[in-house]
Amino acid sequence: MKYAIVLAAGKGTRMKSSINKVMHPIADKPLIGHLVDRLKKLNVDQIDVVVGYQQDQIREYLKDSVRYSEQLEQKGTGHALLHVDSLKDKKGKTIILYGDCPLVQTETIQMMFEEGEKADLVVLSAKLEDPGVYGRIVRNSLGEIIRIVEFKDANQEQRRISEINTGIYCVDNELLFKYLPQITNHNHSQEYYLTDIVELFTNNGHKVKAVRVDDIDEVMGINDRKQLAKADAWLKERINNHWMREGVTIVDPQNTYISEDCVIGQDTTIHPNVVIKGKTTIGTNTIITSNSWLENATIGDNTKIESSKIIDSRVDNNCTVGPFAHLRMSTHVMDDNRLGNFVEFKNTIFHKNSRCAHLTYLGDCEVGEDVNIGCGVVTVNYDGKNKYRTEIKDGAFVGSNCNLIAPIVIGKNAVIAAGSTISKNVLDNDMVIERADVITKKEGGLKYKNKKKLEGDKK
Hints:
The chain is an alpha/beta fold. About 20% of the residues lie in helices and about 30% in strands. The longest helix has 21 residues, at about 225-245.
């Protein structure tokens, strides 16, 4: 069995925020969300999050996807683990992580579990030219790890050690809870350090080993906004490099922002200043031009999205959208369609081979195949209390500057003349023209303009 404990009870005062530190986002997801999602990918049997300060924010985000333990008074990492009652007496391996260390990759977590099968306790370490204030890994003459010493408690010789503790462990779960009560707070900070578990294991004959992480930034802790930005940049570079290796052209990786949960097909090109968020999927040979925003969107093959915003919606194959279009709320644009500039679709199904070139709003609407929607068409779907649907059937032609007052059905091959306001259903094959009579006053325009001038002189 595999378990995970994520420590997230601290205040994070250096972040200077009303938001819990582990709830600050990088790459479109809260810090703790990255860790929990990676643990789920590895099918960890139980994830327990230790919460305390501002715990409601964490609970609201993670909901019942994890278990929770409370550490209301922070007395150190060893003290935090004592509150994880749900894992006591369980057999298996437990990985211990920190909610403010979001960059630990799935491969590293998997490696720790694998190494945990060879030892009772595995410590993830790193070697630094300047180890700073990190805790030091102390080894004996045989090279075996015997203890971890926190910087505050280390002597001068120990401070010269370059191998440091990252704070991440994989441990036999039964032994962990056997020795946790034996940790004391006899140290400079008077806290219960989890690092003391190493010496307890070695003194009692249990096998302890350390494995090194190659990139120290992968295990960085985030305490302030500067470190938050650094972590975001690290993860952005990793994500973008992955997709470029997979055959995606990213014109300017420094100014392209892609969620870790996105999927992108080969030969797709992404131009600068594009944001791709959530669980967005993009097909092959598709072009996303600058200033586009895709969020939980599905984009097909051979499609072009030009400087447009698509949220919770789908655009299929061989389509062109934009520039400056906005698709939202479960809109579905099917194959071979063209949506032009300043088109907004909300909760709309747009069937194959139809056209909506510019300056149009379709809300709560279904449009059939081979339909033309003219410039300035509006589905009037809201009466101040309720919203209603519009249906436009195959082959219909809706002229420019038309208002379709829902609920309404426009029949097959029907034609709505430009400038019409339609409030009743239109039957198949019919043409509807709804315009006021034209009244012409001879030379009325000149008289009106002269009248305005006279009134202006009097003022």
